[in-house]
Write a structure and sequence with these properties.
- By secondary structure, this protein is mainly alpha-helical.
- The chain has helices at 10-45, 50-61, 88-95; strands spanning 70-71, 79-80.
- 2% of the residues are buried.
């Protein structure tokens, strides 16, 4: 199927553009449905549903919060895991001559 675009009017070209966009949307929807069906069949081969696999991957992606390793001696509610930037109270304790091991929990 070939079109002589130079022989078409502006109105015809706009209609063709609209038809192509609609056909592209339908093709994408059709391909998504085919991909979903293929994924479901592949999961079923191993005895799982696609939802089970998707939920398991989401759960494993969640990281556990790191446990605190250091505590502020003047305010026990302030803790630090030892990751990231040092809190102001750690800097203050270190400049006051304390050793980091003195702050360990």
């Amino acid at each position: 199927m070939t079109f002589d675009l130079s022989a078409m009017s502006r109105k015809e070209l706009l209609q063709l553009q609209s038809d192509v966009e609609k056909a592209l949307q339908e093709a994408e929807l059709r391909e998504r449905q085919e991909a979903l069906k293929a994924a479901e069949e592949a999961a079923a081969k191993f005895g799982f549903s696609l939802d089970e696999i998707a939920n398991a991957s989401r759960q494993s992606a969640k990281k556990a919060k790191a446990a605190p390793k250091y505590r502020n001696p003047s305010n026990p509610e302030e803790t630090w895991t030892g990751r990231g930037r040092k809190p102001h109270w750690v800097h203050a304790a270190l400049t006051a001559g304390m050793d980091i091991s003195d702050l360990e929990i």
